[in-house]
Amino acid sequence: MRGELRKRGLYFGERPLCTVLRPHFYFTDQWSYLQQETRFSAGVRIAHDACMRDAKLRGQLFLEPTRSSCSASTSTASFPGRVRGLIRSS
């Protein structure tokens, strides 16, 4: 492990950044939930990115003008906030 850390430059001076392996074990139902949520998030990300590039597509969401212009000019770095901004409350 230390050889790989050294090869990848993962040392702070002479000390490795990580000295132990920390495996994550999941129960079957936890793993299924994680996979499902990850696929959903990836789908939202794809739709979000497409809307950021295409004003015509954004127009299909029937956003209020202030939301549409705000969405178009905002970086995708604030993705969770952008998703909340696209949801219209009743």
How would you classify the helix and strand content by structural class? mainly alpha
> Can you summarize the main beta sheet?
2 strands, antiparallel
Low-pLDDT parts are 75-90
Can you count the helices? 5
Percentage of helical residues?
55-70%
The fraction of residues in strands falls at under 5%
Number of domains: 1
Mean of residue pLDDT values? 75
Morphology call: elongated
Rounded to an integer, what's the Rg over CA atoms? 21 Å
Strand order of the largest sheet: 1-2
Order of helices and strands: HEEHHHH
Characterization of this structure:
By secondary structure, the protein is mainly α. The chain has one domain (2-32, 52-86). It has helices spanning 2-7, 28-53, 55-59, 65-73, 79-86; strands spanning 11-12, 15-16. A two-stranded antiparallel sheet has the order 1-2. A hairpin with a 2-residue loop joins strand 1 (11-12) and strand 2 (15-16). The longest helix is centred in the middle third of the chain and has 26 residues, at 28-53.
How are the SSEs placed, and which strands pair?
Layout: H1 2-7, E1 11-12, E2 15-16, H2 28-53, H3 55-59, H4 65-73, H5 79-86
Antiparallel strand pairs: 1-2
Give a short overview:
This protein has 90 residues and is mainly alpha-helical.
Question: What tags apply to this protein structure?
Answer:
disordered C terminus; about 90 residues; about 5% strand; mainly alpha
